[in-house]
Amino acid sequence: MAQHFLLSSAARTLSLRSIYAAGEEGAFKTFCELRWPETKGEPVCPACGSLTAYKTARRRFACKDCRKQYSVTSGTIFASRKMAFVDLLAAICIVVNAAKGVSALQLARDIDCQHKTAFVLGHKVREALAAEIKDATLSGDVEIDGAYFGGHVRPENMAEDRKDRRLAENQTGKRRVVVVARERRGRTRTFVVPTEAHGVAIARNVVNQDARMFADEASHWDALHGSFDTFRVNHREGYSVFGVSTNQAESYFSRLRRMVAGQHHHVSARYLHQYAAHAAWMEDHRRLDNGTLCHRAIGLALAHPVSRGWKGYWQRSH
Ligand SMILES: [Zn+2]
């Protein structure tokens, strides 16, 4: 049997050893090359587009034409970065290496930064990853499914005090459904909604009407038949019956569950969409080597504008 891709050396093209060996200058060069691929890393003024710049102190540039000062992260989601480039590169390498994602606490320990810094960095990276397929339309064979997350209610110690937790969890107001629409051998889009039934409207929005839809027996998916060529699998009969399954959607949920339970423990309804998108990105790119993943993540972050949600996050009250 062929070796699993992730076990092969081809899956490992970047290491923390090589990142730290190349040092701050090496990491800075990597960021320049990913920000300005069309000039092979030579600076381009974000204000006027000029290709002529002076290097100033602390790895910044001054535009020769409009005189504006800028850095390789100006105007991107990493703007006002305080972390060294080498640590930022290492942090992103750690994030993409982790199949289930990595908690802010663990990242803070790994790169020795404040928990707050790691928390915001993780979310900025997730926001940039999510943008990769923000407007993508899905086509071909598309599986759709939903699963509940959050709103956990701790059971009472004494059995006589316990109540029906399924009902209680519905009443916390923190329970959400992640709906996934996943192309077989393609891309995965995720949405956080109050109930799974919202998935029908989502499908009509993001799935090409020529697509073949695959869903389970839940009755709210009946409405899909009116809009798409739809195939259903009854999970009481089997996971894959006559070739009809939602196994790709289930694999996605298994990764997201492991990410939430194993790394983040508690995710607030407010940020669930970011974890959902992160797990989707990891699923879609699971066959890429880690150097490509890391560079792709940085490329997306440097193409992503300053985040309204995460810029100055800790300076605001919550
Ligand atoms: Zn300029």
Question: Which features does this protein show?
Answer:
9 helices; binds zinc ion; alpha+beta; three-stranded antiparallel sheet; 10 strands
Concise summary:
By secondary structure, the protein is α+β, with helices and mostly antiparallel strands.
Task: Provide a descriptive summary of the structure in words.
This protein is an alpha+beta fold and 318 residues long. The chain is built from nine helices and ten strands. A five-stranded mixed β-sheet has the order 6-5-4-7-8, with helices on both faces. A hairpin with a 5-residue loop joins strand 2 and strand 3. Helix 4 packs across helix 9. It starts with 15 loop residues before the first helix and ends in a 16-residue tail after the last helix. Zinc ion binds next to loops.
Shape: globular
Q: What is the tally of beta strands?
A: 10
Structural class: alpha+beta
Distinct ligands: zinc ion
Distance between the termini: 53 Å
- Helix content class: 25-40%
Layout: helices, strands, pairs:
Elements: H1 16-35, E1 53-56, E2 60-63, E3 69-70, H2 85-97, H3 104-111, H4 115-131, E4 141-149, H5 165-171, E5 176-183, E6 188-193, H6 199-206, E7 212-216, E8 229-233, E9 240-241, E10 244-245, H7 247-264, H8 272-284, H9 290-302
Parallel strand pairs: 4-7, 7-8
Antiparallel strand pairs: 1-2, 2-3, 4-5, 5-6, 9-10
Helix pairs in contact: 1-2, 1-9, 2-9, 3-4, 4-8, 4-9, 7-8
The chain binds zinc ion (ZN).
